[in-house]
Design goal:
The protein has about 575 residues and is of the alpha/beta class. The protein has 3 domains: about 120 residues, Phosphohistidine domain (Glucose Oxidase, domain 1), CATH 3.50.30; about 110 residues, PtsI, HPr-binding domain (Enzyme I, Chain A, domain 2), CATH 1.10.274.10; about 280 residues, Phosphoenolpyruvate-binding domains (TIM Barrel, Alpha-Beta Barrel). About 45% of the residues lie in helices and about 10% in strands. The protein has 26 helices and 16 strands. It has an 8-stranded mixed beta sheet. Helix 13 links the parallel strand 9 and strand 10. Helix 14 runs parallel beside helix 16. About 5% of the residues have low confidence.
Length: about 575
């Protein structure tokens, strides 16, 4: 019987294959009390499990071809570093000794401690750091209970016709099955911003994540189709459906293989409108992939990495050196630096305060609110950014702006820092542009007012959608409600773009929606001319831009804006994506 399951896709890729269902269940941890003479052996058992987990990752790393992009290795390296960190290597052993409990229970207690810290983070990208901890802890737990690893389960079999169906996959496991040539995978859990999703996209593995109940609804050996564009899984498709998807898969593969030739080509539409395609950079290591994709600059440089996993705040000099190095590497291409987007109570040890945790951190003291309250924190970063601006084009972007008064205060702080630098005879760009993130619904609604006080605006769709629809996109229980096509979201985007056009300032988009090719033509039709995205999406977006005439989009996009039927809206979106423009 034909059946269709919905989930989140990592790309528009198509895959056909046979379901290989891995019946791996969630690990249930029970507490066991130990006697004092059992503690030493239990501590040794725990540390031996950590060492075995390390060796598993090293073995996977050794199978990765030498010409693999560095960002693929980084997932393994990150997990290896975590396995050597005292918070996971020493702390559980101390819990064993203090509470006289088994290793599994001690590790779970430490995991819960770390998880509570990460739950206070509102930034979706930084929230995914908790995925890394969860995957590392899960690997150790499975070693402790003696479970066979997924790498051992798949062995050296050829998986080129197989679609793995499993509860969840860690980045290391994805790399492992990728080496076996897996056709695709389906997981019951996980979100579109998880590192597993990002890695699958980077490796071009067709995947549907968060397809609840997939392991029970899909049968081993059953024919399965992954439709990335429709974010769905089709089970037991008929012969005609299979043939149609085979043709579509071949066309998708042909397009992907042709993308590399577009690297140095302009992102210009059929009606000769130049579109700016920039890259989002989370870590300096991302710059290599961004330049390889031919980005026109960095549209979003996240600075939180400088504050993470350390006891002391980064000094002005450290920040200056980091920003200057990035600017130099971009060789004249513009770099948009977003100021710190964390709160004093978040996971970054260097940013902690003695204040009690807020009851709702997503709406609390964070981002620009924290920076305006902590002048020393803000001024150190502003000085570093301004000093780096002497070495290449930089724009300053402020997150979570919700009032015009905040923009005024930011300008006052910048002017204060500029005056100090002049007195010290330190060079900087006197005309450095200041922009705001439009990610709070109030900012989008009042974008016409905000546009009067800034030099540019950038729409952060991740938070804008979450705040507008009151959902957490990394929460499996509600992320099905995350809908970029919601009428309210499209209206807010249109308001912002219109406000920028009226004020004569640039408006970009740096959220995930900017790199999702399902929405490229829609955004072009709404008037967006500056996109910033993950480097892995840039060439595909460029390909669509070069095959599109914006003039032909006004009527179908207007139909989408005024559609009252959600299903009809997606049908209209499909129409503009499939017909010649």
């Amino acid at each position: 019987m034909v059946m269709q399951l919905a989930g989140n896709s990592v790309s528009n890729a198509i895959a056909l294959g046979t379901a290989t269902v891995i019946p791996r269940d969630h690990i249930h941890i029970n507490q066991t009390r130990l006697s004092t003479d059992q503690v030493s052996a239990e501590t040794s058992r725990y540390k031996a499990a950590v060492e075995k987990a390390k060796q598993q990752l090293i073995d996977i790393s050794n199978t990765i071809p030498e010409d693999t992009p560095a960002d693929i290795y980084s997932f393994i390296d990150t997990h290896l570093l975590m396995l050597g960190d005292p918070t996971l290597y020493e702390a559980p052993a101390q819990i064993i000794e203090q509470e006289l409990c088994n290793a599994e229970w001690a590790l779970q207690q430490q995991h819960d401690i770390l998880l509570r810290v990460f739950e206070e983070i509102d930034d979706p990208y930084l929230q995914t750091r908790r995925d890394d901890i969860a995957h590392v802890v899960n690997r150790i737990q499975r070693v402790l209970i003696g479970e066979t690893s997924l790498t051992d389960i798949v062995g050296d079999k050829d998986f080129s016709t197989q679609i793995i169906v499993i509860d969840d996959l860690s980045p290391a496991e994805i790399i492992s099955i990728h080496q076996r040539g897996v056709a695709g995978f389906i997981t019951e859990f996980g979100g579109p911003l998880s590192h597993s999703a990002i890695l699958a996209h980077s490796l071009r593995i067709p995947a549907i994540i968060g397809a609840h109940g997939a392991r029970h609804l899909l049968q081993p050996g059953e024919s399965v189709v992954i439709d990335g564009e429709k974010r769905s899984v089709i089970a037991s498709p008929c012969k005609r459906t299979k043939a149609w998807y085979r043709n579509k898969a071949r066309e998708y593969k042909r397009r992907k293989n042709a993308l590399a030739s577009l690297r140095d080509e302009p992102a210009i539409t059929l009606d000769k409108q130049l579109i700016t395609l920039q890259a989002n950079v989370e870590l300096p290591e991302d710059i290599r992939a961004a330049k390889k994709a031919g980005c026109a600059g960095i549209g979003l440089l996240r600075t939180e990495y400088l504050y993470m996993n350390r006891e002391q705040l980064p000094s002005e000099e450290e920040q200056f050196n980091a920003y200057r190095n990035i600017v130099r590497r971009m060789k004249g291409a513009p770099v948009t630096i977003r100021t710190l987007d964390l709160g004093a109570d978040k996971q970054v040890d260097s940013g902690r305060s003695d204040m009690p945790l807020p009851s709702n951190p997503a709406l609390g003291l964070r981002a620009v609110r924290l920076c305006l309250q902590d002048q020393s924190l803000f001024h150190a970063q502003l000085r570093a950014i301004l000093r780096a601006s002497a070495y290449g084009p930089i724009r300053i972007m402020i997150p979570m702006i919700s009032t015009v008064n905040e923009i005024r205060q930011v300008r006052t702080h910048i002017q204060t820092v500029q005056a100090a630098l002049r007195r010290e005879r330190i060079r900087f760009d006197e005309n450095i542009p200041l922009g705001t993130m439009i990610e709070v619904p109030a900012a989008a609604i009042a974008a016409n007012l905000f546009a009067e006080y800034c030099d540019f605006m950038s729409i952060g769709t991740n938070d804008l959608i979450q705040y507008t629809l009151a959902i957490d996109r990394v929460d499996d229980a509600v992320n099905y409600l995350y809908d970029p096509m919601h009428p309210a979201i499209l209206a807010l985007i249109k308001m912002t773009l219109d406000a920028g056009k009226k004020a004569g300032i640039h408006v970009s988009m740096c959220g995930e929606m900017a790199g999702d090719t399902r929405f490229t033509r829609l955004l072009l039709g709404l008037g967006l001319t500056e996109f910033s995205m993950q480097a892995s999406s840039l060439l595909e977006v460029k390909s669509i831009v070069r095959e599109t005439s914006i003039e032909t989009l006004s009527r179908p996009v207007r139909k989408i804006l005024y559609s009252k039927d959600s299903a009809r809206t997606y049908d209209l979106l499909h129409d503009i994506n499939t017909r010649s423009m």
